[in-house]
Amino acid sequence: MAACLLALAMGCDEPGSVRIRSQGGRAPVDASGSIDVFASPATGSATGSPVPSASPSSGSVGVTPTPIATDSAATQSTPVPDPTPTPLRTLPPEPVITPSPTPTPTPTPTPQPTAFPTSVKVAPKTGELNAKAPTGTNLPGFVSTMKLSVVVTLSDAATTSVVDWTSSDPLRVTVGSDGTVTALASASPGDVTITATAKGSSLSDKATITITTKGRLDVTVE
């Protein structure tokens, strides 16, 4: 474009070129030093708008280009949709741990005091046994066994009959665990002591058994 303008300034007259209207063979220059440029009728284009003029001192010519129409539909960009955000994975709630209740300690039972014997009573206190029964044991007049009883009173007011029985002369008189006293046939006359002692204690009670050897004689008179 600049080359063509320079050609115009030098008198270029080609079809379709730009002509410079002059008066008296001079290009009209206004006070600012600008030159009016008009499109040639041969081009069929509209008259151009005034352009910046060349400076008289420099001889250069400035041309303002005609704006090019743009297609607004072509230049309009298609909006890009925002990406769909990926939903965050929901974590399951953590289980609530319920603390186990502290077990209530079982109170230690207060030990009850162990009952102990407070008294021992033997009955009867005396007895007589015959060691020479002629035809058998415990015939009338010839008793050779008897049974003693015992009561042990405890500290808690309870009673028991559990004792240890002993004889002062087991070669003459014996005593069983149930208190049964027996005079042996070989026993000599005299006294034998039977003792009942409470279990786990030194408390005791006694009975005296007298041994006899007298016999009975039956006389028949005719």
How would you explain this protein's 3D organization?
By secondary structure, the protein is mostly beta strands. It has helices at residues 2-9, 72-75, and strands at 117-123, 126-130, 145-147, 149-154, 159-160, 163-167, 173-175, 180-183, 190-198, 204-212. The chain has a 4-stranded mixed beta sheet, with no helix packed on it. The chain has a 3-stranded antiparallel beta sheet with strand order 1-4-5, with no helix packed on it. Strands 3-8-7 form a 3-stranded antiparallel beta sheet, with no helix packed on it. The radius of gyration is 78 Å and the shape is rod-shaped. The longest helix has 8 residues, at 2-9. It is built from 2 helices and 10 strands. The protein has 2 domains: 1-65, no CATH class; 117-212, Immunoglobulin-like.
SSE blueprint:
Layout: H1 2-9, H2 72-75, E1 117-123, E2 126-130, E3 145-147, E4 149-154, E5 159-160, E6 163-167, E7 173-175, E8 180-183, E9 190-198, E10 204-212
Parallel strand pairs: 2-10
Antiparallel strand pairs: 1-4, 3-8, 4-5, 6-9, 7-8, 9-10
Can you identify the CATH class of the largest domain?
Answer: Mainly Beta
Distance between the termini: 201 Å
Number of helices: 2
Tell me the fraction of residues in β-strands, as a range.
Answer: 15-25%
Counting helices, strands and paired strands, the structural category is mainly beta
Count the beta strands. 10
Largest sheet: 4 strands, mixed
By CATH, the architecture of the largest domain is named Sandwich
In one word, what is the shape? rod-shaped
Output the helix-strand order: HHEEEEEEEEEE
| Share of helix, binned | under 10%
Give the integer mean of the pLDDT values.
73
CATH topology group of the largest domain: Immunoglobulin-like
Strand order of the largest sheet: 2-10-9-6
How many domain units?
2
Rg for CA atoms: 78 Å
Q: Which segments are poorly predicted (pLDDT under 50) over 5 or more consecutive residues?
A: 1-61
